[in-house]
ROK family transcriptional regulator (Cryobacterium flavum), 786 residues
Amino acid sequence: MPVRPTRNPGSQSALRLSNQQRILSNLVSSGPTTQADIARNTGLSNATVSNIVKVLVERGLVSTSPTTSSGRRAQLVSLKSTDGAVSVGIDFGRRHVRIIVATVDYRVIGEKDVEIPLGYTAAEALDIAANLLTSTLLQAGVQRSAVLGVGVGVPGPIDSRTGTVVKGAILPEWVGVTVRMVEESFELPVYLENDANLGALAESTWGPHAGTPTVVFIKVGTGIGAGLIFNGRPFLGHIGLTGEIGHTPIHEHGLLCRCGNRGCLETVASTAIMIDMLSRALDRPVRTRDIVRLVLAGDERAIRVVDDAGFAVGRSIAAIANLVNPHTIIVGGPLADLGEMLLSPIRRGLQRYAVPMIVETTELVMSSLGERAEALGGAALVLQHSGIHPTLS
Amino acid sequence: MPVRPTRNPGSQSALRLSNQQRILSNLVSSGPTTQADIARNTGLSNATVSNIVKVLVERGLVSTSPTTSSGRRAQLVSLKSTDGAVSVGIDFGRRHVRIIVATVDYRVIGEKDVEIPLGYTAAEALDIAANLLTSTLLQAGVQRSAVLGVGVGVPGPIDSRTGTVVKGAILPEWVGVTVRMVEESFELPVYLENDANLGALAESTWGPHAGTPTVVFIKVGTGIGAGLIFNGRPFLGHIGLTGEIGHTPIHEHGLLCRCGNRGCLETVASTAIMIDMLSRALDRPVRTRDIVRLVLAGDERAIRVVDDAGFAVGRSIAAIANLVNPHTIIVGGPLADLGEMLLSPIRRGLQRYAVPMIVETTELVMSSLGERAEALGGAALVLQHSGIHPTLS
């Protein structure tokens, strides 16, 4: 029987990348280190360390300086962090742009957000973001040349083969936007990613769930999507279209969905449908923040809408938990301030439809990062692509 | 903001394991190699290679012999494969035990299966398997000491924290069985795993889908479960309970399920429910193999039962594809011989409920490994736990 290769752990480029990440991780955890000590700490040969350090110097990630060690001349390797290298995260929503600037040791040193009008084009939004980027770097006292890259979140699926926003995005204006277009706008290296994926990465990097290896982040907003962290890293599947849970069928003969099907989760539990129902019931325009306000004020109609939505989300979460058995499920998005008012019906749905042993061993919580999650995730994405992982505080 | 560790890629034990796997992979692909050449091929230092080779010699995985290289004395390291090391896979079903013996270069050199009566205890089944193991090794001319380990598949969830079969198993007699009990029965190292997980591993190791990094294997049998291969490796989630898709709700007010819920996928699409419906309709006892025979003979009742079941499976597969965006979905289990008769309604369900771009880019196929998949997966599991991955043929 013929045997074909699995992803060969010994392939040369995978090996190089893995060796590079080892060296960077070692520098993050140990601080400036001689080449000989890096070799000792990682098990790599001196020649391998020396070659990779050369590449990292060229990429501007580390610098070297002469020193002495046990009386002999040696090369001291330092992360450029000490020179102020930073990572930027930018999150685009339907009505906002948020930016976060973080150092290579995962400290946030700059943060801003602006509201933008509904229905702006992608080009207009990118202009606003480019200005926000310039002013935030200026305020934080950071040179543009110190930016390792920009992690950009958009509320839509990204085809990882081409780096393009594809059909299904909450902002139709963004369909067709490529990573190259965003790079031209920012004049910096860009990583383009779905917003729920960035939320998941942020939750597994910052806050109380940092370090949890298996996390599902559910963003309940105008659309509903999931971000997956498996074995400590973002999971993107075959072509980057993971977490498309908004179109799970809930009611066979329910409302028509923007995807062409009917009765999808989004027709029952998105903030868009909640706004639609409450605007009719109250006979005046309602916005997302009003949903939170009405529920917290005890409005029975708003409570019912959120309760039904939460139960449907919980039913979908049950199917997810049965399939991938996560350690922690985190609910985020603009309704996160509702806390138990939203989490309680979600928990009922999970308990009703998941396998009992999975219910017992899965942690279900509300996001503590709130609306900052996606931009934080963007900043983390850049750092992790540079092989810089968070270390013990 | 405090930063806590993600799974630190630089942690010492993870590094050691990763270095060990590099060295074993190198030996599998290059054959016997000197320690100096292993260091060159892997980028590891001579000291690291020497230490790891010592450990591998102690574990009986490799042997060393003196040689010369460029006129200098050197240590030649060889995989014990040349001495006939093997891996064993054993699959327990409701009515069968199957065994497969494979070499470290993934060649099958022994295979047997026996039918066993319904309702046997786990202890009885283990006795039968232990005898089968002894006779199969004898026929293949393999010493017991050459067996690296036994990968054992059972149709039930395994708690990976304790290595115990837990509630929800198709064979209730197996609940509470531990990896330790199986090891005592076989007197060999044992890896205990859910059968669908082993099917997934087999499909990504042997046959036309070998090397596919993201695979979902769906086993449709007395129960319905999924096995997941993510990034080329089995994905086990938080405590090993992945792929529990048999209890996805399909009909809100459907039949009561063995899990305590009602209307689950298994109440609509398992072979158990097909057998139940066809036995009533035909007024005589029907077995799994009869379902295949009746459908292929054109019996309209059997065709209808399989078609409805397939569509429900397809709907569940759509939710899976929307969530984890696999490259390939493979349908296995005892109905695999039905081919298009089962695959066609599954495809209709997938197309009806999955996001269009995911439908377009996901491959949906029938297993070509058939009833051998789980035992093949068991053998592959042992080899991969020893760091031995398949290479180019």
